[in-house]
Amino acid sequence: xxxxxxxxxxxxxxxxxxxxxxxxxxxxxxxxxxxxxxxxxxxxxxxxxxxxxxxxxxxxxxxxxxxxxxxxxxxxxxxxxxxxxxxxxxxxxxxxxxxxxxxxxxxxxxxxxxxxxxxxxxxxxxxxxxxxxxxxxxxxxxxxxxxxxxxxxxxxxxxxxxxxxxxxxxxxxxxxxxxxxxxxxxxxxxxxxxxxxxxxxxxxxxxxxxxxxxxxxxxxxxxxxxxxxxxxxxxxxxxxxxxxxxxxxxxxxxxxxxxxxxxxxxxxxxxxxxxxxxxxxxxxxxxxxxxxxxxxxxxxxxxxxxxxxxxxxxxxxxxxxxxxxxxxxxxxxxxxxxxxxxxxxxxxxxxxxxxxxxxxxxxxxxxxxxxxxxxxxxxxxxxxxxxxxxxxxxxxxxxxxxxxxxxxxxxxxxxxxxxxxxxxxxxxxxxxxxxxxxxxxxxxxxxxxxxxxxxxxxxxxxxxxxxxxxxxxxxxxxxxxxxxxxxxxxxxxxxxxxxxxxxxxxxxxxxxxxxxxxxxxxxxxxxxxxxxxxxxxxxxxxxxxxxxxxxxxxxxxxxxxxxxxxxxxxxxxxxxxxxxxxxxxxxxxxxxxxxxxxxxxxxxxxxxxxxxxxxxxxxxxxxxxxxxxxxxxxxxxxxxxxxxxxxxxxxxxxxxxxxxxxxxxxxxxxxxxxxxxxxxxxxxxxxxxxxxxxxxxxxxxxxxxxxxxxxxxxxxxxxxxxxxxxxxxxxxxxxxxxxxxxxxxxxxxxxxxxxxxxxxxxxxxxxxxxxxxxxxxxxxxxxxxxxxxxxxxxx
Length: 795
What we know:
Distance between the termini: 123 Å
Strand content: 15-25%
CATH architecture of the domain at 493-650: 2-Layer Sandwich
CATH topology of the domain at 493-650: Heat Shock Protein 90
CATH class of the domain at 493-650: Alpha Beta
Radius of gyration: 44 Å
CATH superfamily of the domain at 493-650: Histidine kinase-like ATPase, C-terminal domain
Largest sheet: 6 strands, antiparallel
């Protein structure tokens, strides 16, 4: 048996095992380095941010110290009084500064100068040392004279030869600045407070530099080393942003640099960590593992080679010998069978011997089979050509089908998200509206009793307006869930646009975008649409606000309306059916919407804006829900030159209704009628009872439908005020139906914290007069009860 079989089988086997072991070791080493490096980066980032905050807080405290001292009367008098009182005040100022110096050890000295920079007092006291020195040319002195409490750059003190910096603040007499009070801080104390803790770093250090690339202090003696090693690119990175981290290379390997600019000064706090030295233990483990893997590989290769030769190679050599005789045409030789346990080679030996017996018989038929195979291959080649064409055609059809299915799936996902939010909004709306009832109703009730000039009147009005805003937020959730619009009336979009463009909300938007310009083109004969003015106005506000935010440098927003008839279905952002529409178009000159975001802009909670500059991501989803609730369509086109939103609303032939004036209190006062309030929540019963009693009604309350039914059996009520959701037992619909069986002419009003449901609709169908949504407002509740009583009670 030639040795080529061992090389062909054993060598690749060993190589594969070696490659596998190497890949595992390399992956483990790489993962370990990555994890350690990520954790190191996070830890250093936390240390830098915390240290920067501590330094800023410490500096702020020193500025507060000096600012507080500057307001002492003796300090002001030392600069403003003359004669005997002036000398006494200056002596008092000197004593005050001496006491402050003794009490605040972090200050090397504390001084007081007039507006010309001449020293009036200094602690420790040394009139000779400051004689002839003026501070008028100091930048921090000039900034203090401008009314700012400021920090100076770090300089070498002429008195102590130490690094120091000064906290300076103006001294005011009334509105006039009469001098400057300053405290000089020894930077070595600052270094001990904030940098010495970093001496424990084995392969790293922390340091402070200022805006002029001057080293202020460090946890180690790295002054010359730092400026010798740091490249221009490294410094540019440090000064490019307010915080961050990066890796740069030095002669001895990579260095991780994490930095944070301080808020109070031009200083930068930096931590540097040598990565190669930090990760050296991992490299050492990798070398040990590699050595172990090599040893295991050698042992394993030796065992495989020995076993392979014993079990396979020797037996194959016998088979090769017989094969050579068969090759020469001698079919008399047979392979000796192994006497050991039968295995695959034993079976191969038996089969080979049988093959030799049948070889003569098969040689003659082999040629025929070869010919048949050639014919088959030719036929297969022909069929393969046809199959490729069929596959290509089918692939095109599948691509089209996949695209349509993806769009259908996206619409389904969007619908499921809206349904999920609808379930959530419906679940919380009842509880939120019940809670908001007290916030809205009680202030409303108190405002009726108080005169407008009462001290509590503005506060109560603010509470009421806040509650109404909270109720509007709940209404937004219901709008998003396609469950919030229950008022529909003929609406003219031109009027809604004009009202918004003259509203305080739009004026506030313009104050934030001073370069914003509005260009309008309104169709004078615009047809009415059937919808909710409140929800349509919010849609207009959302679209214009988004357009303004997309133009950070200013620009024009074009708003237009028109009547348009589509004589066939249009396939734009969505399929728009043919018919008569009122089209509202809002076009901006912003940066546009990225193509990958265009399909997601109407999804709930999706926003491509920077965090903190926009809302929660519900705005466009609310727009989508509002348009859909009005039976309309929306189209969006976007490019790098701007975005165009086109809203299509079906027209209506109904004429616009006139809005009645707000009712007066006298319009809904009671006349002593008896009303039964049914609500399972105690606070809601109290709110309704208080309002109705104040309006002049007699009130009885019940906490369940069963209790209300018992009361209805004992006495008659002029009107029932029923909550639709009553916890366990009968709800408002069942309660009304049961009482109606006793009193067929019973008048009733249904209330609920939810939107109008099918149960509410059914209750109105069988006789309930009106439906009121919580939270209660006095005029809404009072007018509903008054109108229902006037309609049902005999005159």
